[in-house]
Amino acid sequence: MALQDVCKWQAPDTQEASPHLPQAGGWAVPQGWAPQTFLQIHGPRLAHGTTTLAFRFRHGVIAAADTRSSCGDYVACPASRKVIPVHQHLLGTASGTSADCATWYRVLQRELRLRALREGQLPSVAGAARLLSVMMSRYRGLDLCVATALCGWDRSGPALFYVYSDGTCLQGDIFSVGSGSPYAYGVLDGGYHYDMSTQEAYALARHAVAHATHRDAYSGGSVDLFHVRESGWEYVSCNDAWVLYSELRKLPGPGPEQEREEEATPDRAGEGGGPSVAPAPGDSKMPAEAL
Predict the structure, then answer these.
(1) What is the reported pLDDT for 56?
(2) What tens digit of pLDDT does each residue of 105-156 get?
């Protein structure tokens, strides 16, 4: 059965079903309503979330994301792709409304291809980010929801930009977008440094997304990992988020029992260059340092 038969939708001014949507000015809005106000009041309010991250380091740009697409309390798709290739040396993370992200990435691919045909070379990562931000800024206030981290390698080396649907365009070394981003930032801030090796970068990205999926109800599924090199982007791996988090918990680290043992261990005499001083009976304060 065709979609038109299910929805009982007819094209304007015709009795035959048409696969084409109305033009930009032909949407049916109740008389007396401004489109922006109508969408804000009567538009759907479904909670959605995700965890995407990207960071720049010596050997390129890492992009990682979970694969759960949520729609309120419903998991719409457990295996969606949230890292979208744009061309051989550019890809981006997708956070926000899935339809908006997919649409605007197709628009960006088209515009970059047209510029490459006109100018004989692809624009830089900064140029692509500015182009996307300018195109989306014209739809500010119309419930467009696209938050992306553009990761690429151009003539200046690895580059990373954050672009939001209101026209925001920022350059940086670390970006995490989505409802799980606070948890991902907690892992990234503790393990990131620019001179890390490739394997260290892979492990950091996997652990950051896996930790976020454990704490954020709207994130989950698997962890997709991409690496943008000078030769182009590479799809590194896809790992189950729960398996990664289980492995993360098994890593050695100071547990509560070890911390209590270290606190209960007395200082050894002779360390620090002076004799140890015993506290006076009944004195609960720490001993004063030897002069």
Answers:
(1) 94
(2) 999 999 999 989 998 888 899 999 999 999 988 888 777 888 999 999 998 8
Measure the CA–CA gap between 44 and 54, rounded to whole angstroms.
30
- Alpha carbons within 13 A on the beta-carbon side of 234: 13
* Least confident residue range of 74-78, 171-175, 252-256: 252-256
Region 235-261: what's the mean pLDDT? 73
Domain boundaries, the chain: 52-247
Please, which residues bridge with residue 156 across strands?
A: none
**Would you say 188 and 177 are in contact if contact means Cβ atoms under 8 Å apart?**
no
Q: What is the pLDDT of residues 66-113, one digit of tens each?
A: 998 887 677 878 888 999 999 989 999 988 888 888 888 999 999 999
State the CB neighbour count (10 A cutoff) for residue 120: 7
In this structure, what are the phi and psi dihedrals at residue 236, rounded to the nearest 5 degrees? Answer: -85, -55
pLDDT band at 32 (very low <50, low <70, confident <90, very high): low
| CA distance linking residue 71 with residue 75, whole number of Å | 6
Q: What distance in Å separates the CA atoms of residue 80 and residue 206, rounded to the nearest whole number? A: 17
Catalytic residue positions? 50
Please tell me the distance from the alpha carbon of residue 214 to that of residue 217, in angstroms, as a whole number. Answer: 7
The radius of gyration of the chain from alpha carbons, rounded to an integer in Å, stands at 26
Phi, psi torsion values for 29, nearest 5 degrees? -120, 135
Out of 3.60.20.10, 3.40.50.2000, 3.30.300.20, 3.20.20.70, the CATH code matching 52-247 is 3.60.20.10
